[in-house]
Amino acid sequence: MTTFAKVKRSQHTSIPAGVLALLILLVLAALPFLVYQSVTNIMVNLFILLVLASMWNLLAGYGGLISVGQQAFVGLGAYGVLFLAQHGVDPFIAIPFAILVGVVFAVPASWFLFRLSGGYFAIATWVIAVVAEIAITGVPSLGGGTGAALPGLSGIDPVQLGADTYWASAAVGVLSIAVVFLIMRSRLGLVLTAVRDNEIGARSVGVKVTRAKLIVFLVSAAGSAAAGALIAISQLNVQAANVFNIQWSAYMIFAVLIGGIGTIEGPILGTVIFIVMQQELARFNAWYLIIVGSLAVVIAIWVKGGIWAQISERTGIRLFPTGYYVDTAEDEMEGKRLGRRRISKVIGGDRQSGQLSEAAETT
Amino acid sequence: MLNAIIQGILLGGLVVLFACGLSLLFGVMGVINLAHGDIAVAAAYVAVAIVPVLHIPAIWIFAIVVPLFMVAGYIVQRLLIQPSLNSGPLTTLLVTFGLSVIIENLLLEIFSANSHSLAIGSLASSAFKLSSQISIAYLSLLILVVSIVVVAGVQLGLYRTRTGRIIRAVADDREAAELIGADYRHIFGIAAGLAFGTVALAGLSLAMYSQVDPSSGPDYLIFGFEAVVIGGLGSLWGTFAGGIVLGIATTIGLFLSANFGALAPHIVFLLVLALRPQGFFPKKVAV
Amino acid sequence: MGRRPNMAEVVAAEPALSNQILEVEGLCAHHGQLLALDGVSFTVGEGSVFAVIGANGAGKSTLMRSIAGLHRPSEGRVIFDGTDITRLSTPQRVELGISLVPEGRRLFASLSVEENLLTGTYIRRSGHWTIERVYEMFPWMWQRKNQRSSLLSGGEQQTVAISRALLANPRLLLIDELSLGLAPIVVRSIYGSLSKIMEGGLTVLIVEQDVNQALSVAAKFQCMLEGRTTLSGKPAEFTPEEIEAAYFGLNSTSSIHGKD
Question: What is the ipTM of this complex?
C-alpha cells in the first residue's frame, strides 16, 4: 500500500470562511446605515479592544513576551493624535503618525526591556509605561496632568463624526487581524511558532529568535498606538490618567485569556465576550472587572487554550489557516472512504494540544 | 544631601521588607507575583477595616493581620498559583496580574478610591533632631529596625532551621525533594505564606508611614522590583542598597521639580539596567 | 545463596512469598506517545539485592521512577509489602519506606554536604540510620560537611546521595544508574560498602548498565529491552552469552523469560 501524505495549508472550513468573512466585512461597512449610533459607539469600543487584544496576543501568545505595560503605547498613540491635532492636522489623518510615535518610542524601550525576560520583562514594561506617563504629564502644552480636549473635530456633524470614528476603528480592527494573520503565514510566523514550541531548540538551529521577538514587539507597539489614537478620537479628550491606565492592559489580557491565547480566533471571540459582559454588567461598577478578571484567571488555569480551543476541538473549525496540515490517507480510495482524516499540528499552526493523538488514533 | 541619604536609608528598610517576599517567591518557585504590591495594600485596608471594630491599639494589628496573610498566602499558593505553575511558566504571570486587577477593584468597591492611613497616635508625628536640618521620625526608625529584624530573621530561618533547609532544597530541585519525602507543593505553600506575611507587614508599615489607596499597589511593586534589580537579583543587602539609591534619587529629583521627583528613581533604574544589568551586588544563587 | 535447597525446603518456603517486599505486576508506562514500559512484572525478596540491567532506553529508569512514584504508570500495579501503592504520591511512598537515589545523584546544589544529608531526615522515620552512623561509615563526609555539595567529585556525590536516601531509613532502596559517569575504582568502592549498607535488613534494587558489577552482588536480576523483560532469574543460572543476547536483543524476539 502506498501512503500519500500532502502538506496542505488550507482546510475544508477555509473557503466558506472566506465567503463568510467577506459578508461580515460588507455588513460591518454598512453598519452605520443600519443601526443607531449607540450601537456603533459600542462597536468602536469593541474594535479598539480587538486591536489591543490581537496585538497583545501576537506579543504574548506568539512571541512569548508577557507585557503588562502596553498602555505606554496606547497613551503615546493618543497623545500623538492630540499633538498633531493641536498643530492643525486632521485627527483621522494623524492616526498613521500616532502609530509612528509608538514605534519610535518602542525602539529605545526595547533596548532596556530585552535585557530582561519572563516576569522581570513584564514588570519592566510596567516601568516603561509609568515613565512614559510621567514624562508626558510634564509637558504643559499637552495639558499636563489634567489633559486636553482634542481639537479639529468640533465642526463636524456628530452623526457624521460617529460614523467616521466607527469606520476608522473598524478599518484598524480588520487591518490588525490581517497583519497578525499575514505575519503568522510568513516566515516570521514559522520562526515564532518554532520559538513558542521550543525556544532553546530554535536558537540552537540558528533561528534569529531575538530579532523575531523584536519585530513582534514593534508591531504590537504600533497596533497599540493605533488603538490609542482611536481612543483619543472616540473620547474627544486625552487625559494621561486615562490613556496610560493599567486597565487597558487588564482589558486586553482578560479578553485574550478568555477567548484563547495563541490563536487568531481566540482574541476575537474574547473581545466579543468581554464587550458583551461589560455591557451586561455595567450597572455593577467595578464588579464587572472583578467578574471578568476572575473568569480570565479561571480560564487561564483550568481551560487550556481558552474558549476558542474548546469550540475548535469539538467542531474542528479553524477560521484562519496559519499552520500546515499533513493530509494522510492510506491510499486514494481508502482516503475517500475514511473521509480523509487529517492529522493537524504537525508543523506549527494553532495551539491545540491533544489533537495529534486524537487524530492519530482514529486513522 | 546628608538628609537625602538618611531619609533614603529609612525608606530602604521598608523597600527591603517589601522585596523580601518578592525574591522569596521567585527564588523558591520561579514565580514573579505581579499582585505583590496589591497584597501589601490589601493588608493595610484589612487593618483599616478591623481597627475600629476591635477597639485595640493599632500597633497590635500586626499580630492579627500578618498571620492572617500568611494563611492566605498558603491558600492562594495551593489554590491558584500551584495549578497555574502546572500549566506553564507564563500562566503564573497572567494569573497574578489578574489577581492584581481583582484585588485593586475589590478594594475600590469596598473602600472607595479615597486613600487611608493607619492612625497610631503620637508615634506618627514625633521625631528627634540630629541637627537643625535633619530630623528623624521615631516611626521611620522603628520601621527600619523592624524591617531589618524581620528580613534578618527570614534569612536566618532559611539557613538555620529544618523548614528553611527544605525550602532551599525544594528551590534547588523539587523532584529530588519529593524523593526525600517533602511534598514540594506544601513547601511552596509555606514559602508563599512567608512572602505574604512579610509583604503584609510592609503594607501595614506603609499605611502608618504614609497613605495608601486601592490603586497604589503596582507603584510599590515597581519600586520594590527596581530596588531588587539595582541591588542585584537574589541579594537582600543589595536590595537594601537599591532601596536607598531609589530613596535618594527621589529626594534629589524633588529638589528640581515634583514631576522629576517621580521620574528620577525610574531613570536611575533604567540607567542601571542599561549599564549594569546584573545589578551592584549580584549573587549566583537566588533566595 | 550457597547450596541448592531441596524440594521439602522449597515447599516449606512457599508461604514465605509474603516476604516479597516489592511486587510489580504488568506495569506499563508511557512517555507521551512512546511506550516505555510494556507489561513488566517481577518480585523482590526482602533483604536481598535485585538488579535491573539493560541498554540505554530499555525503560529501566522509567521503571524506577514508577516504583518511586515520580512517573504515573498507565497500567499495572506496584505492591509494597502487601499494600497496593500504585496511586500513592512520592512523599507517601518515602513515608512507607521506599527511597530512590535518582539518576545523576541530584544533590541539592546550593546546600552543604551536611545539609544535604539532613534533608534525608525530613520525614523522621526512625531506624538504623542516623547522621552519626553515616559519618562513622564515611568519615570523609564529616571532614567536608560544610562544603557545598556541588564541589564534590562524582563518586563522592553518589555516596552522599545514597547516604541521604539511607537517612530516611527506607526498607527498600532504589539506586538508579549507580555507576553512571563514575571511575571503575569508585564504583568498586561503592559496591564494596553495599553489604554494610544492608546491615539493617535493607532491600536494594539497583539499575545498572555495568552488567558484571551488578550481577556480582545481585541475588536475582532481570534484563530489560525496549520496555520488556527479556531475561530474569538468578545470575548463576545463565551463561554470559545468554545474558548478552538478552541485553542486546540478539536472539529471537522478546521473552526467554525466567527459569525460576
Answer: 0.89
